[in-house]
Amino acid sequence: PQDSEKAKTLVHSFLKRSMPKMRDEAIQDLLTRKAVVLEHYHKKQTKQKRKKTKGFTAKQRRELRLFEIEPEQQRYAIFLPLHELWKQYIRDLCHGLKPDAQPHMIQSKLLKADLHGAIVTVTKSKCPSYVGITGIILQEFKHIFKIITKEDKLKVVPKLNNVFSLELDGFISYIYGSKFLLRASERSAKKFKLKGTIDL
Questions:
Q1: Which of 28, 48, 100, 125 could form a disulfide with 130 if both were Cys (CB 3.0 to 4.6 A apart)?
Q2: Distance CA 145, CA 147 (A)
Q3: Which parts form a coiled-coil structure per UniProt (predicted)?
Q4: What's the pTM?
């Protein structure tokens, strides 16, 4: 009998700890009916939000001069290997630029391609002083190209109101800058529409 009482006390205290929200009468009722369902109460864990690492703002990038090319680095010969890499990249992208390739297919791929390293020429412009500028594209921004010429001069040429041409393995492509006002990363996802005539 003493062991029985000890067992009852033990079970009662155990149930009290396991089900703290239950009153003594409810626990006693469960014991008399010999039907016990133990419940486990989880402590609510507060999820810690991960802090997103923020990059530099446009103002900070300008202050740090992240995109400026030092004068001693502004030499055409330095970037010729970059142009060779770009040519190989375009050949791989267009599957070799074969003579039987369809021009509009190559054109569509070039419109989405990365142009850093391409040699371009300004063929038409509303500003005559830009016409004839030829060089390697060093940087492409939303509204401008930064081009290094053979004379080792860094030219900042706006895309707006300018037509650029680039030639590779006999294939000449024209870029209408006014329809090209996008960053390089945005162009890769954009769908360009074929248009019959395009003005500056």
A1: 125
A2: 6
A3: none
A4: 0.66
User: What token pair was written down for 145?
Assistant: 């190209």
Quickly list H helices, the chain.
2-18, 24-33, 58-64, 80-93, 103-112, 184-187
- pLDDT (tens digit per residue) in 74-112: 999 999 999 999 999 998 988 777 777 777 788 888 888
Angle subtended by helix axes 24-33 and 2-18, to nearest 10: 130
What letter would DSSP give residue 47?
Answer: P
**For residue 83, how many other CB atoms are within 10 A of its CB?**
17
CA dist 154 and 152 (Å) reads 7
- 141: tokens are 């921004």
Q: How far is 80 from 136, CA to CA, in rounded Å?
A: 8
Q: Give which of 32, 29, 4, 187 is closest to 112, Cα–Cα.
A: 187
Phi (first) and psi of residue 172, to 5 degrees: -105, 130
